[in-house]
Amino acid sequence: ENSFEAVALEWYNKQLHTWVPHHAEDVKRRLESNIFPALGKRPIGQIEAPELLQAIRIIESRGSYDLAHRVLQVCGQVFRYGIATGRCTRNLSTDLRGALTPHVKQHQAAVRAEELPDLLRAIAEYGQIGDQQTRLALQLMAQTFVRTKELIGAEWVEFDLNNALWIVPAVRMKMKTEHVVPLSTQGLVILSELKDLSFGSRFVFPGRNRDKPISNNTMLYALYRLGYKGKMTGHGFRAVASTILNEAGFKPDVIERQLAHCERNQVRGAYNRAEYLPERKRMMQHWADYLDLVESGAKVIPMHGGAA
Q1: Is the pLDDT of residue 264 over 50?
Q2: 286 given a catalytic annotation
Q3: Which residues pair with 206 in a beta bridge?
């Protein structure tokens, strides 16, 4: 059959095994809600660019400019599949370049708080399309909200597991000051799993060459595969944690210290790495428990950060 809907579903089923369920549902919903009602029954080879543009502009009329671009991107993949299978001769998405309202991309994209549960569930499913090491890396990043380079370069010698502390040496920190990351009970479980996957390497996240860690792009590519291209980056975990923890009432100084946003000047000098440590320990366990709660789909109970 040559209808747009038939070709799209054929393409969708071909791609399905490469996607996690979360992303697959997003793709199908974008087509079913936005394109099939207007163009689904039309032969794909007879659809003209103005017809596709009209369907996309309905999305724009709702103020959903980012979604409009995403739907057009999906349509482009359907048209490319249609060309490959002999059902059409043109990819109409290329004809619409410049016709859509530009959407502003965040320099360091981060999901909103209400989008965090879906992201966490997508990460939990990553092992279905990617390796377990990368899944655990994303989960540990969510738990600790350190910078990407600080995470991927982690060495086992930096961890004091008996005291549930990760001490990142100054040489690996952006601010060139040693940084302490309190580890939640959930974080310790993740590290236990990672230990079994590191096969004796000194790195927590060894690459194919066990003497080197995974690359910076590993995390970003994994987020792309989960359907978060342009929506989330490694740095985004820091932004969303900061937003939620501040709104939860944790002291800004405690949050800033945990983010390693330390002052470096002659007056202040090197800060005490243990500054606010008891409060930070409580905050990090609160954060880990909060992540578990929202991932499970439970109604979010506000974290009470006043004590920290």
Answers
A1: no
A2: no
A3: 213
At residue 219, what are phi and psi to the nearest 5 degrees? -70, -45
139: number of CA atoms within 13 Å, CB side?
27
Largest distance between two CA atoms of the chain: 74
Q: Is 290 one of the catalytic residues?
A: no
Other beta carbons within 10 angstroms of residue 62's beta carbon come to 9
Cα atoms in the 13 Å half-sphere on the side-chain side of 112: 1
Partners of residue 3 on adjacent β-strands: 43
Choice among 30, 179, 231, 235 that is catalytic: 235
Residues written for the chain? 308
How far is Cα 215 from Cα 217, in angstroms, rounded to an integer? 5
Q: Which CATH superfamily is domain 4-95 in?
A: Tyrosine recombinase, N-terminal domain (1.10.150.130)
pLDDT digits (tens, 9 = 90+) for 26-44: 899 899 999 999 999 999 9
Domain with CATH 1.10.150.130 in the chain: 4-95
* pTM of structure: 0.64
- For the chain, what percent of residues have pLDDT higher than 70? 91
Catalytic residue, from 65, 221, 224, 271: name it. Answer: 271
Please say if 62 is a catalytic residue: no
Q: Is residue 174 flagged as an active site residue?
A: yes
Is 235 a known active-site residue?
A: yes
Q: What is the CATH number of domain 113-295?
A: 1.10.443.10
Q: Which helix (H) or strand (E) holds 166?
A: strand 165-168
What's the average model confidence in pLDDT over 214-243? 90
Domain with CATH 1.10.443.10 in the chain: 113-295
- The whole-number pLDDT of residue 107 equals 56
